[in-house]
Amino acid sequence: MSSKDYKISPPPKDSGAEPLFRVVYAIDVNASNEQKAAEQAWQMMRAKNAFDPILMVLDSEGKQTKLDLSDLLEFNKVTTGFVVQKFRNDGTDKFGCTHQEFIAGDDVQFENVKGESIEVPEHEYQPFNMTLVSRDEIIDRLGDVLTSIDVGGEQSRQFAHEIKILDELLRDLGWVQKD
Predict the structure, then answer these.
(1) Cα–Cα distance between 12 and 61 in angstroms, integer?
(2) Neighbours of 133 (CB within 10 A)
(3) How confident is the model at residue 3 (pLDDT cuts 50, 70, 90)?
(4) Are strands 54-58 and 22-24 parallel, antiparallel or unpaired?
(5) For residue 141, what pLDDT band results from cuts at 50, 70 and 90?
(6) Which of 66, 67, 29 is nearest to 47 (CA)?
(7) Which tens digit of pLDDT belongs to each residue from 42-83?
(8) C-alpha distances out from residue 44 to 26, 29, 30, 47, 149, Å
(9) Helix or strand (DSSP H, E) at 85
(10) Are 27 and 46 spatial neighbours (Cβ–Cβ below 8 Å)?
(11) Is 41 exposed, middle or buried (0-12, 13-18, 19+ CB in 10 A)?
């Protein structure tokens, strides 16, 4: 079948409790063959960091509806406020931050991922946690996790994918494994 002959038919008429829809998700991937392309597309669709897709939905009459799920599955809550930091002299005439907190103001805006204003969606409260952990402390802690799970044997084989991700992330951050 050539690309000019490509056509997606609507789903069959169905007598079930709910109407039947055909949902089409198109994705372009580079791969060495059709099977590799299909496998890569499947992995991309399932990835935790995958973009929300734009889907075409066809009903049994052939009516097409285009849905951008990024408009429906996530939003930004923009809260205006202040950060208050407490500094203490460490005895060498240098001051280090010992505490910080965000004090939310009354101005809160809700927007879709395109930055367009939306109505307030139903959502759970999320506290404004702020940590004082430095980049080096984060790298050290992640390095400790990596070395505790990458011990060889069956455990390392079981978590090989996670170990690889963590190792690459740490190396990108400049981590050097301790002997």
Answers:
(1) 9
(2) 9
(3) low
(4) antiparallel
(5) confident
(6) 29
(7) 888 888 777 777 888 988 888 998 887 777 778 899 999 999
(8) 12, 9, 12, 5, 26
(9) strand 76-89
(10) no
(11) middle
